UniProtKB/TrEMBL annotation:
InterPro entries: Aldolase_TIM (IPR013785), Cyclophilin-like_dom_sf (IPR029000), GH (IPR017853), MupG (IPR008589), MupG_C (IPR043894), MupG_N (IPR043797). Residues 4-228 form the 6-phospho-N-acetylmuramidase N-terminal domain. Coiled coil: none annotated. PANTHER family: DUF871 DOMAIN-CONTAINING PROTEIN, PTHR38435. This is DUF871 domain-containing protein. It comes from the Bacteria. Pfam families: MupG_C (PF05913), MupG_N (PF19200). It comes from Paenactinomyces guangxiensis.
Length: 358
């Protein structure tokens, strides 16, 4: 099952308390996790400790699972160690992500704490290391793996590497894997260059980044890395986790009421065409013939009465096609969402968001 979450950084993002209304709204939209880090060099740790406890309490009140990135130094600063880390649950923390600084034995000990979920570093762990952890008693049922995010430009991962890591981890018994996308508005200090897992996602929209992680890169959980409060991105994530890909379109044909087609949740046929994405949900509904227009990549079309039994069938063009008097061009997928068409495989569900001209 797909899920999503967001990030807050106590000691670095001092405005998080002002976003409580947004946190509540995100939970209502289906947000499941909130991520934070307790070892950011630029943060004030005295403030981190105080703010972390407050954040844990707030996450618990909203039924959010809070996962904290920890290291040996920060754990000691909280008065805890690998044997007592479970006490974080009493604060409202639900899981810990371990990075550098822990031995295999210590990681296994954390996995046996009985209260907190253990999250491994999916970007750095190897098959051999995962196998060694299992042999030393890792509680695999209590273990997930999340990739790093990369603040510095040019240092993020490739999609090919992420897919390979994900497949290896799942073969080793890790059932859930997470990754990060950059925020739509807020960017985290000190570089303000976004916090993506994949380098290719640094400059792209969050909806594309999330859709590609979910539907191309075999990721189960997507988290917004930056401390962003953009509700539009949360809305998109809430659709993507339902196994539906939303496409923004501009309506081109208004001489007929196409609301029945725009308002449906469609499903690509299980026997896909290389030319078009097909939905037969409205096949049979009468559609009068109109002006034939060229069909560019991303054109949304509906077959008219001249196509006989195909009348009413909806297509999205995967490539440029010539005008056809038997088909009406009713809309156009906006350029920013054209990359999503490659994710609409056999049986994939999709819906439309009609973009109105301002």
């Amino acid at each position: 099952m797909k899920s999503f979450g967001f990030s807050i950084y106590p000691g670095l993002d001092e405005s998080w308390r002002e976003k409580e209304h947004w946190m509540k709204a995100a939970v209502q939209k289906g947000a499941r996790r909130v991520f934070t880090s307790l070892h950011i060099p630029e943060s004030d740790f005295a403030l981190v400790r105080e703010e972390f406890k407050a954040l844990c309490s707030r996450a618990d009140a909203y039924s959010l699972e809070l996962v904290a990135d920890i290291g040996p130094v920060t754990l000691r600063a909280l008065g805890l160690d690998v044997h007592s880390v479970g006490r974080l649950k009493d604060w409202g923390c639900s899981g810990v992500r371990v990075d550098y600084g822990y031995s295999e034995e210590e990681i296994c000990q954390i996995s046996r704490n009985g209260k907190l979920k253990l999250v491994l570093n999916a970007s750095t762990i190897s098959r051999e290391e995962c196998k060694a952890l299992r042999e030393k008693g890792l509680v695999i049922e209590n273990t997930e793996a999340w990739h790093n995010f990369y603040p510095r430009p040019e240092t993020g991962l490739s999609a090919e590497f992420v897919r390979r890591q994900n497949r290896d981890l799942k073969e080793m018994g890790i059932s859930r894997i997470g990754a990060f996308i950059p925020g739509a508005k807020g960017r985290r200090a000190p570089l303000y260059e976004g916090l993506p897992t994949l380098e290719e996602h640094r400059g792209c929209e969050g909806r594309q980044a999330a859709a590609e992680l979910f539907y191309r890169d075999e990721v189960d959980e997507v988290l917004i890395g930056d401390p962003d409060d953009d509700m539009a991105l949360i809305d998109t994530l809430s659709v993507l986790v339902r196994d539906v890909i939303p496409l923004r379109v501009k309506e081109l044909e208004r001489s007929y009421d196409w609301s029945d087609w725009w308002g449906l949740e469609h499903k690509n046929r299980p026997d896909p065409s290389p030319c078009v994405i097909r939905s037969g949900l409205m096949r049979g509904k009468r559609v009068p013939a109109g002006v034939a227009l060229p069909r560019r990549k991303g054109a949304v079309t509906v077959d008219n009465e001249k196509y006989g039994r195909y009348m009413g069938e909806l297509h999205i063009c995967k490539t440029d096609l010539p005008a056809d008097e038997k088909t009406q061009v009713i809309g156009q997928v906006i350029p920013e969402d054209l990359p999503l068409l490659s994710l609409l495989g056999p049986g994939q569900r999709f819906c439309f968001e009609v973009v109105r001209d301002k």
